[in-house]
Amino acid sequence: MSAKAEHYDVIRKPVITEKATMASENGAVVFEVAIDSNKPQIKEAVEALFGVKVKAVNTTVTKGKVKRFRGQMGKRKDVKKAYVTLEEGNTIDVSTGL
Amino acid sequence: MQVTETLNEGLKRAYELMVTAQELDDKVNEKLLEAQPEIEMKGFRKGKVPMALLKKQFGQRLLGEAMQETIDAAMNSHFEESGDRPAMQPEVKMTNEDWKEGDDVNVEMSYERLPDIPEVDLASISLERMVVKADDASVDEALTSLAENAKDFKAREEGAAAEDGDQVVFDFVGKVDGEAFDGGSAEDYPLVLGSGQFIPGFEEQLVGAKAGEEKDVTVTFPEEYQAEHLAGKEAVFTCTVKEVKQPVAAELDDELAKKFGSEDLESLKGQIRERLEAEYAGAARAVLKRGLLDKLDELVSFDLPPSLVDAEAKQIAHQLWHDEHPEVHDHNHEGIEPTEEHTKLAERRVRLGLLLAELGQKAEVEVTDAEMTQAIMNQARQYPGQERQFFEFVQQNAQMQQQLRAPIFEDKVIDYVCELAKVEEKEVSKDELEKAVEALDDDA
């Protein structure tokens, strides 16, 4: 499957944290994805962009914090994260970039 | 790590070092492991950053460092084993140029080792130390010149004309084109005629003035006068002479001695004598040192590392060239080729330098902190008002410290050698000493 422009819109960036590192030990990769994307789209995008087989996608929306700025209430944007489990034998080196 | 000798000729040595990729990698990992607990990174608690990530981030940078360290360590252990001391920084070169990560590293190292310095039988050296007593004549001479500097001025009798050398106290108002200018007037100004304090022509015109007289002095400011608006202009100074004083040489008595801070004439004389003798002793020491160095130079001979001699010869040539061309202060001139003479001188210097260093080391001559501080203080005095800065500068600058330490060390070694050598004292006159010092200057 060749990569298309919209695939790049779905995947924002990899998440590199302690938790993500732990997930990677079980063959999963964590990405920040577009808030309006869904699991099939994410699966397609990851398969197209990194050339790997995806087993499953779990997503979670982390709500942005409510912050006060000069007395005004404001809200940070929500972030959708996708835990992408890869089929056995597939890996993505998240820190190298595309 | 493999070390193979590729050159062993005279004092020259060359080696080839090989560091395997595995060794380098281990070194990098070791470094990372050491640093890991201290590293903080976004998304991780402190010290919890995984190794793989660290390696990716810092590996490249550490690799260079690790390479440097392994090579340094290899060199150091090599020097320790072989007992060689390099004359200069060893030349280190990587031979495989298209090296990339994961390759073995080949390094070529070449240097000149310091020669083995033969033992010198110091006791076989005999020297003469010149001793000069300050005689009364020279003490008197010094005293007279002191007295001259302490000249007093005494008012001349009324109506007497000022002569050259007299002090004239006067008011003056200077005018250019009929207008007074800034800094061109003063009151009760004491001026010694013939001292050259004022613009040329001014003092001469005051010669012959009498107290109470008014006199116009017309002078032209010199073209290169520092105040630009006055340079080259003609000015008229209206001078009112108030007093004319003639110089009186201070008499050699207790009064004079008190002026210089001693109790009476005798003690002043004693001070002068001490100072003169210290001066003579310093000069005699220089002569003695020279003689000693000559002797040592004759006594020993060993191979010299050519790179040191070359460097020294160039330095000498460069120095001499600058002495001959005082107008050039920067380094924007052509390279100067040292002549044979320079090389010879350089050889002597290098040989003696090495020898003295060796002797000092064997005798465990050390420069103490107190002596160091003393030397720094002496230097600092040359920069009045900035002693503190100088002090700090030296403290931070290892090279400067070295520069100050070297002469002290040399002196101490010389002292040490003099103790061992036979030194005869010989009383000579001042003239003979002077001659010896001059001879020393001539061929230095």
Automatic annotation (TrEMBL), chain A:
Keywords: Ribonucleoprotein, Ribosomal protein, RNA-binding, rRNA-binding. Belongs to the universal ribosomal protein uL23 family. One of the early assembly proteins it binds 23S rRNA. One of the proteins that surrounds the polypeptide exit tunnel on the outside of the ribosome. Forms the main docking site for trigger factor binding to the ribosome. GO terms for molecular function: rRNA binding; structural constituent of ribosome. It comes from Pseudodonghicola xiamenensis. Gene3D superfamilies: 3.30.70.330. GO terms for cellular component: ribonucleoprotein complex; ribosome. One of its GO terms (biological process) is translation. The keyword Ribosomal protein applies. Part of the 50S ribosomal subunit. Contacts protein L29, and trigger factor when it is bound to the ribosome. It comes from the Bacteria. Pfam families: Ribosomal_L23. InterPro entries: Nucleotide-bd_a/b_plait_sf, Ribosomal_uL23-like, Ribosomal_uL23/eL15/eS24_sf. This is Large ribosomal subunit protein uL23.
From TrEMBL, chain B:
It is found in: Cytoplasm. It comes from Pseudodonghicola flavimaris. This is Trigger factor. Consists of 3 domains; the N-terminus binds the ribosome, the middle domain has PPIase activity, while the C-terminus has intrinsic chaperone activity on its own. Involved in protein export. Acts as a chaperone by maintaining the newly synthesized protein in an open conformation. Functions as a peptidyl-prolyl cis-trans isomerase. It catalyses: [protein]-peptidylproline (omega=180) = [protein]-peptidylproline (omega=0). The lineage of its organism: Bacteria, Pseudomonadati, Pseudomonadota, Alphaproteobacteria, Rhodobacterales. The keyword Cell cycle applies. Its EC number is 5.2.1.8. Belongs to the FKBP-type PPIase family. Tig subfamily. Gene3D superfamilies: 3.10.50.40, Trigger factor ribosome-binding domain, Trigger factor, C-terminal domain. Keywords: Cell cycle, Cell division, Chaperone, Cytoplasm, Isomerase, Rotamase. The gene is tig. It is an enzyme of class 5 (isomerase). InterPro entries: PPIase_dom_sf (IPR046357), PPIase_FKBP_dom (IPR001179), Trig_fac (IPR005215), Trigger_fac_C (IPR008880), Trigger_fac_C_sf (IPR037041), Trigger_fac_ribosome-bd_bac (IPR008881), Trigger_fac_ribosome-bd_sf (IPR036611), Trigger_fact/SurA_dom_sf (IPR027304). Residues 165-225 form the PPIase FKBP-type domain.
